[in-house]
């Protein structure tokens, strides 16, 4: 079931929210949790009902292991149990996500023809597995005591974050469900509905139209057609904007859905194309994944505690595995490797400046824009591997972007309207770089979990000085009319809903 579908917007969400509010208003706290668990499992099973036993079995397995870990003192038995639990999760993830990848590569290298059944990836398995791994590790360290099975099921299966994140930590979600009063209020509904509608508009009215320019270019390269300079750049820029607004839209919708139920989810997207360096980009893009990779992979590998060389190896390994997490393909590994290389070069340069006494001064406005454009360019190049179907098509597009395959536009090769694409790119690059994001517009109402902390748990983008009063969200008639128009426009264009890009991971 897609967030951007008639079934979800007109049936599932109103029924689920209405019944939840009724139960909460009756004071039936535990029953409201039961209802959310049932509704979330129904939401998950709508795509494929046969996956429900997998989800339930995984929940029972991890809760049992976590409970045992919480009762054991640190030692060999606890460590062995933790290894068993982590291995079970990784084998589960590995089979469904990477079996096809390894079989295909073995067939190609060894000339085998095993003829095994194609394994279908259950929705959200990567996000769910990471949440459970974090829970087990924290159970081993004694940080998860006191949670019941209902709490655990709701933490993992809560439908706004079930399919494509954010990757929620148990310490963020479970305490909210255990509050004496968990019901939403009018502010929650106003903020939640606003975020949901903004996210729907980003997905349906921006991301999907950009896909119409990007998809033909990448499909043509995959089919052996060589795009020319302008076409390759337009296609790559279009995909760069498509994935931005697609993931930003999903993140807004997920956060908004959480707020409709009175729950603040962690911020997962914070204007990453405003990043002034590649490290800043990863503090803004898929923020909860970056946090998980840092806390449960990079730091356990040694982080930066074992010297600069080991630090760069850890960075590269972390990003390679992060790329493989996104998809079972060598293009994703290349994408992760590029970002690992970017980060290693950046930190190496930063460390060299520190050793030589060249401490960075506060950058000027011009320096900020130089860093922003350079970072955007590096990220854009890496997106080619992320989107391409194969190495061959990725190299073809990169060669065309370098001008190797000519500069003259040939309409018969790729059927896209370059003029319309250029206008749309210019417009939304301006929006991305110059306008506040949805969370900044709603900052006064604490839209995400970080805004409810004092001080914030992450460095949030400062509100632009020129942010005028009319761009700040208020629960008034003007904003209601704007959002109603955006909602109507979005719903009108839902006749053929498309999946979010991150749902495939």
Structural features, described:
This protein has helices spanning 6-25, 29-45, 52-71, 76-110, 125-140, 149-157, 170-177, 186-222, 229-260, 278-282, 287-298, 308-326, 330-355, 365-387, 391-401, 418-434, 438-441, 477-492. The longest helix has 37 residues, at 186-222. The chain contains 18 helices and no strands.
Gyration radius over CA: 23 Å
Unreliable stretches: none
Number of distinct beta strands: 0
Basic shape: globular
Task: Give me the secondary-structure topology.
Blueprint: H1 6-25, H2 29-45, H3 52-71, H4 76-110, H5 125-140, H6 149-157, H7 170-177, H8 186-222, H9 229-260, H10 278-282, H11 287-298, H12 308-326, H13 330-355, H14 365-387, H15 391-401, H16 418-434, H17 438-441, H18 477-492
Briefly summarize what is shown.
The protein is mostly helical and 505 residues long.
Defining traits:
single chain; 505 residues; mainly alpha
